[in-house]
Amino acid sequence: MIVEVIGGADEVPEVRVADVDDLARLHLAVGALTDEDVDRALREAGLGRLTEGDTGLLDVAALRAAAEPQATADDWAQRFDGMVEQAGAKGWTADDGASLQVHVEPAASA
Fold it and tell me: What top-level branch of life does the organism fall under (predicted)?
């Protein structure tokens, strides 16, 4: 799954969740935006925040709410829960497990 933050209409950053059925990976893909723009866009979308230039935190409940309506796999909810459990086991959570720590990568469209 990918959370993308890219330049939108009138240069207002757009946040969207893509590849929701691929729960083997999760990252934040960022277009040609400043860290401040990315952080603000994530917070305004209610999906999370940028912690450093190469790390972000995504709210688990908000991510699920944004991704689940797009999911096509019958077992998606169980696989999502498994992804969250695995992240917790590896220490990739914050806010008492309410957020997942993710790596920031350049967006393909950047």
Answer: Bacteria
Element housing 78 (H / E): helix 76-89
Q: Are 29 and 75 in contact (CB under 8 A)?
A: no
Q: Which two tokens stand for residue 107?
A: 């967006």
Spell out a b/e string for 58-81, using b for 16 or more CB atoms within 10 Å of the CB, else e: bbbebbbebbeeebeeeebeebbe
Please give the chain's pLDDT, 110 residues, in tens.
Answer: 999 998 865 677 889 999 999 999 999 999 888 889 999 999 999 999 999 768 999 999 999 999 999 999 999 999 999 999 999 999 999 988 899 999 998 876 54
% helix, strand, coil for the chain, step of 5: 40, 35, 30
By residue count, the chain amounts to: 110
Nearest-5° Cα angle at 96, 77 to 17: 40
User: Which phi and psi (to 5°) does residue 81 adopt?
Assistant: -60, -40
